[in-house]
Amino acid sequence: MKALEGVKVLDLTHAYNGPFCTTLLADNGADVIKFEPIQGDQCRSWGPIDEKSGESGFYAFLNRNKKGVTLNLKNEKAREIFYDLVKDADVVVENFRAGVSKKLKVDYETLKEINPSIIYASGSGFGQYGPLSNRPCYDIVAQSMGGMVNMTGFPDSPPTKVGPSIADNVTGIYLCVGVLMALFNRERTGRGQQVDVAMADTIFSLLENAIVTTTMDGVIPQRQGNIDPSIAPFDIYEAKDGYIAIGVGNDRLFKTFCETIGREDLLDDPRYQTNDLRCKNYTNGLQQLISEWVATKGKKEIEDLFDKAGIPCGPVLDMQEAIDHPHFQAREMMVHMDHPTIGEMYFQGCPIKLTETPGSVDTPAPLLGQHNKEVFGLTDEELESLKAEGVM
Amino acid sequence: MKALEGVKVLDLTHAYNGPFCTTLLADNGADVIKFEPIQGDQCRSWGPIDEKSGESGFYAFLNRNKKGVTLNLKNEKAREIFYDLVKDADVVVENFRAGVSKKLKVDYETLKEINPSIIYASGSGFGQYGPLSNRPCYDIVAQSMGGMVNMTGFPDSPPTKVGPSIADNVTGIYLCVGVLMALFNRERTGRGQQVDVAMADTIFSLLENAIVTTTMDGVIPQRQGNIDPSIAPFDIYEAKDGYIAIGVGNDRLFKTFCETIGREDLLDDPRYQTNDLRCKNYTNGLQQLISEWVATKGKKEIEDLFDKAGIPCGPVLDMQEAIDHPHFQAREMMVHMDHPTIGEMYFQGCPIKLTETPGSVDTPAPLLGQHNKEVFGLTDEELESLKAEGVM
Predict the structure, then answer these.
(1) Active-site positions of A?
(2) What is the DSSP string of A366-384?
(3) Residue A11: strand, helix, or coil
(4) CB < 8 Å to A134, chain B
(5) Are B354 and A182 in contact (CB < 8 Å)?
(6) Which of A135, A143, A331 lies closest to B130 in CB terms?
(7) At what angle do helices B17-27 and B166-189 cross, to 10 degrees?
(8) Which residues of B form the catalytic set?
(9) Which of A3, B12, B61, B350 is deepest in the core (most CB within 10 A)?
């Protein structure tokens, strides 16, 4: 049994943030029905594209474990079909552009008339209220306005966006938290509600002490590259064959560190006696000294040395190295899936490990409209007729 | 009423990832009791430090809404006090180093003997099983090994860590998802379980299509700076007074974009007819042309122009600009809190907006051991005597 078995989710999401939420729900047993317009989720054209089938690898990893139907919500008959499903659904998730759900008459106000205990989750760039709620947004915009971009990168480099789209996917995770809180509350009160998460708010919420540093100290944090202003040594160094992160968080570890690199002499150096002093004297001495030592070694050699000594460290892995790493392999962070048209796929598994109700990847992403007959309870003739009418 | 009212959480966490999970729970109504060793959570020494009181601003924003007690879990009497609270608790959250919870006899195996329906959530660097589960970890190590660092930054810059500690805080959010799934399942089955989230897994789970690009195409994604290889124009540009992100996701928007910058001539340029062509001809032409246009304008001027035209864009905000921005103000992403020793504080609010059971920041972070009497039900004399014994 999975944790969310019996929870019925009507998934109106497209692109990335909404679907990431419903993936977490589907991986953990919710019955997720993904509704796509007749032309399909835009994400079906996002790379990588399988050459043979023309199918999107992006769509395929993101929509595993979901059933897929098509429905043209601009069509009245389609809308009635949808309303009928809302009656005994638990959750609706959407990430339409502002105003679209209302125009399509699938907004919360409309659906709660049909099912007052429905939980309606909305992911967006700038939220369901506020001065920017109507503004379009991409991940890069949310990262920029949320304050993340200005604090990522080196002091002498331009502000830098986080490579992967973390405004999107963390918004999906927060949406999932909201849905689960609302579900738990509904078990006790019977009441539904709307969940509202904005990508800009998500990014803002991840800034940790940058906010209090600004409001308490009046200091606006700036880009620091790979160092931590309050711990030293704590940096990413270039070894003979790549980069490696090393963190030395306290005096005890610094002693071990000096012994490990054969530089016990540093322990007597007045510049490095405390973490505070090491921070002050890091970029003007300690950093170069360590960089020179690291440059003479291989990543693996350093990792083994420091692992034995109990010093936190780890190589900067590229995507292939991470995929193949024994840690991610043992944790089933990569799973195999046979896709009906792409064939054998190999993509990310479930990051939340539950001992009694483990999540898993069981079924491939749906082909466009694959579950129309099953979900809508149609004969072949009915399906053809509704297709001809432009309903699905 | 809040969503999680009545849920009792025993919070054994310290530092950042575990506490971020219990903050989400506490903001939404769970009764969170934070257990600290007698010397306090290490995070009480993390900056910014209030000069007057010596109190940590980091600790203060992160531990709002929680009750605080001290307990020396190495002491047998302290452990008995803890076990007594476990009997009617719903959730235990911990992020001890591997092996510590077992040594302290507060591991899941021990606690489920006392309360079989307990939900026990564990945050760690490398998880409760797997070849690295005993290895110490910092955020920078998880970001590096998880694959994020290698994909952040510019092609000609070193691999770059994300400024804020997203391995920590997103692990906290996933832990919260796990706790809520387990709580929901327990409502139906009565069964408890353990939740296991690793910082390295968290980072790995955020890499979106980088993984399928590697496994399907055999191409290892590399750092791309601020551009998106599959959309153009999509970048961060330097204006007269700072940086601004602009994203032009399709042909329709590109037409509007060209009209807005007064360059309708580009619409006839064969190099820019489709998104695919624009991607191919971005860094060798289009990028410079747009950069030159942006460089002659102010951020606000561009934002206003593009906002009117419906083109996704937004300035790169520094921490002060973000805090003051009308969007974050209207969304209550900043809240005021009166702290007993620091005084007036101003820090981050709740990113998940629930219409019927909104989360909120109601009480300041606890002083060390502030709720010992209340939570443990002690008289002044008993408290003093237990303190003298080294129990709390």
Answers:
(1) 168
(2) PPTTTTHHHHHT--HHHHH
(3) strand
(4) none
(5) yes
(6) A331
(7) 50
(8) 168
(9) A3
A contacts of B118 (beta carbons < 8 Å):
none
Local mean pLDDT, 10-residue blocks, chain B (392 residues): 97 97 98 98 93 96 98 97 98 94 98 98 98 96 98 96 98 98 96 98 97 97 92 96 95 96 96 93 95 97 96 98 98 98 98 98 98 97 97 98
Give the amino acid at B300: K
Which pair of tokens denotes residue B332?
A: 């209550």
Cβ proximity of A151 and B321 under 8 Å: no
> How far apart are the CA of B99 and the nearest CA of chain A, in angstroms?
14
Instruction: Print burial letters for A35-50: b (CB count within 10 Å at least 16), e (below 16).
Output: bbbbebbbbbebebbb
Answer yes or no: are the C-beta atoms of A170 and A204 closer than 8 Å: no
Token match 């593009």: residue? B306
Residues B168 and A205: beta-carbon distance below 8 Å: no
Q: Give per-residue burial for B134-172: e unless 16+ CB within 10 Å, then b.
A: ebbbbbbbbbbbbbbbbbbbbeebbbbbbbbbbbbbbbb
Structure tokens at B278: 């624009």
Model pLDDT for residues A39-74, shown as the tens digit of each residue: 999 999 999 999 999 999 999 999 999 999 999 999
CA gap B75, B91 in Å, rounded = 22
Does A289 reach chain B within 8 Å, measured CB to CB? Answer: no
Question: In what side-by-side order are the strands of the sheet with B119-124?
Answer: A353-354, B193-198, B119-124, B91-94, B8-11, B31-36, B67-70
Question: Is A21 touching B (CB cutoff 8 A)?
Answer: no
Among the partner residues B6, B145, B152, nearest to A162 by beta-carbon distance? B152
Given a contact cutoff of 8 angstroms between Cβ atoms, the answer to whether B123 and B151 are in contact is no
Query: Which residues, in sequence order, are bridge partners of residue B337?
Result: B345
Which domains are assigned to chain A?
8-206+327-388 (3.40.50.10540), 234-316 (3.30.1540.10)
Residue with tokens 């796929």: A345
Contact A351 B209 (CB under 8 A): no
A142 touches chain B (CB under 8 A): yes
Name chain A contacts of B53, Cβ cutoff 8 Å.
none
